[in-house]
Amino acid sequence: MTHLDGKKIFVTGGAGFIGSHLCAKLSSPSRKLTVYDNLSSGKVENVKHLPNVHFVKGDILDLKKLRSQEKADLIFHLAAQVVVPYSMENPIIDFETNARGTLNVLEKARKDDARLVFASTAAVYGNPTKLPTSEDYGFNPFSCYGLSKVVGEEYCDMYSKQYGLDITIMRFANVYGSRCHGVIHDFFDKINRNPEKLEIIGTGLQSRDFVHVSDIVEALILSTEGRAAVGKTYNLGYGETIQIIDLAKLIIKLLNLSEKTVISTTNTSWHGDVKTIWFNINKAKKELNWTPKVTLEDTLKEMIRDRRLS
Ligand SMILES: NC(=O)c1ccc[n+]([C@@H]2O[C@H](COP(=O)([O-])OP(=O)(O)OC[C@H]3O[C@@H](n4cnc5c(N)ncnc54)[C@H](O)[C@@H]3O)[C@@H](O)[C@H]2O)c1
Questions:
Q1: Using one digit for the tens of pLDDT, what is the confidence trace for 65-78?
Q2: How many whole angstroms separate alpha carbon 8 and alpha carbon 243?
Q3: Short-list 151, 43, 143, 139, CA closest to 86
Q4: Strands (E), 107-253
Q5: What is the mean pLDDT of residues 221-242?
Q6: If you measure from the C-alpha of residue 78 to the centroid of ligand 1, how many angstroms do you get, rounded to a whole number?
Q7: 14 C-alpha to ligand 1 centroid (Å)
Q8: Phi, psi (deg, nearest 5) at residue 156
Q9: What is the pLDDT of residues 99-147, one digit of tens each?
Q10: Which domains are seen in the chain, by residue range?
């Protein structure tokens, strides 16, 4: 990663789940790293122990503050409202953060003439009819979250075409690892509270492509090497899909609770929930020379060891 030495790097949302893992990898005496986060869901503890990280509590909606930060060479824009059901209940707040917030970050990039990597999502595809889904599928969002990320992507495209900014769009599937939120975290929490039952929200028949946060971080960094990824969009997933009911069964099996835990489902999904996420990742493999390495089962075992659940 020597290509980033001497660079001033600015990470929005750096105190969150993925951002803090990225900052842990980037932090080095040879780089100047600023984390800009309003701590709405992130925690300063996630980054404050990292050497050479300058933390700024700030909102991406505060354009004045954002633009008054030191000039950056490279911006990773991860700050976002990330919860699909919340976006359906609060579409305006979701739009503000993900669409206008992204536009503000692009304005900082324009002022600084900085390179930018934008964290997008599988939600831009909605319920794709083509599986595994490739980057050229097109947009068909099924939630306000997906739509606000489409707007973010479109502004990235506009800034790249009209202002010549160097931008890469990364669409993440379901990211997991330490400090993650979402279904895996939810299952562990529920079993911790009561190992006799595990309730799945929805039918359990939804399926997801789970990719480990360390693989995401590696791809984000690889995308900033040379110019191959400039102006491009990549799917970052594992390239496999698993039904949520099978994920639940797997976790229970690894915990040796198959005889004890009863799985049930609420049978009603939340507003904006999609049926299947399954990425075709050939483009990232070929052009970024990236392959996801971490398997779901190995990580679940590790998480179980860490949580002393088995
Ligand atoms: N976790 C996943 O599975 C997943 C999947 C697809 C895409 N993504 C994208 O990856 C990025 C990071 O997601 P995450 O899972 O780490 O979420 P996260 O909630 O852990 O991190 C988001 C961070 O952004 C900060 N933030 C939110 N609004 C802000 C604002 N207005 N100003 C400044 N900071 C703000 C939060 O405090 C938090 O630290 C997001 O853009 C998300 O849409 C995540």
A1: 999 999 999 999 99
A2: 41
A3: 143
A4: 115-121, 167-172, 174-176, 197-200, 207-208, 210-212, 233-236, 242-243
A5: 98
A6: 5
A7: 8
A8: -60, -45
A9: 999 999 999 999 999 999 999 999 999 999 999 999 999 999 999 999 9
A10: 2-175+210-236 (3.40.50.720), 180-208+240-278+294-306 (3.90.25.10)
238 as an active site residue: the answer is: no
List ligand 1's pocket residues with C-beta within 6 A: 12-13, 15-19, 37-42, 59-61, 78-82, 97, 101, 119, 121, 172, 174-175, 182
Q: Tokens for 48, please give them.
A: 């404050």
Whether 309 has a pLDDT exceeding 70, the answer reads no
Distance from Cα 268 to the centre of ligand 1, integer Å: 26
- Give the pLDDT confidence of 46-63 residue by residue, as tens digits: 999 999 999 999 999 999
Question: How many A from CA of 13 to the centre of ligand 1?
Answer: 6
Mutation to probe ligand 1, out of 10, 46, 57, 78 (largest number of atoms < 8 A from CB): 78
Instruction: Find the catalytic residue in 36, 125, 145, 238.
Output: 145
Q: Which atom of ligand 1 is nearest to the CA of 16?
A: 39
